[in-house]
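Intended use. Records like the one below are meant for learning the mapping from a protein sequence to its folded structure. Do not use them to infer anything beyond what is encoded.
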Amino acid sequence: MPPSSDTSSEHRRGFLIRVIQTVHAGIGATLAFVVGGAVVAPSFSRREKLWLPAGSLPQLVDGVPTAVTLRIARSDGASETVDRRVVYLVKDGEALQALDSTCTHLGCRTRFNPESRQIECPCHGGIYDTNGNVVSGPPPSPLARVPVRVEHGRILVQV
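Structure written out for the chain above:
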């Protein structure tokens, strides 16, 4: 018995529907891949670590945090973005450390008080010692340590 024309047209119609759905799925997958890659790819790229000059070793006084402002220029497409970051350089004999000046409580900028010989946060009264350890107040952790090295008497800080 030959298939009826209704059955063959239904098969053709079903086949064309599946072809159109497959084309739509392919377009959607390609679009998702391109847009998703553009959104997610920057988070997978490695940011180059910079070693910036922060002063010279003879300029530092033992046990006294010295605030240094680092200028970080980053290329952002057609323009250049300039960030400023303040770190404390602390020399203790032969040892040298760099501390981030950002309070670990709510991100306020701290300052060194030479009278009390402590690093203070003006926002909520957080107090750190000259090694960045919490003395009192709300900060949950010590000041962040920043990688530092000395080359030919010059201090370099990694950002």
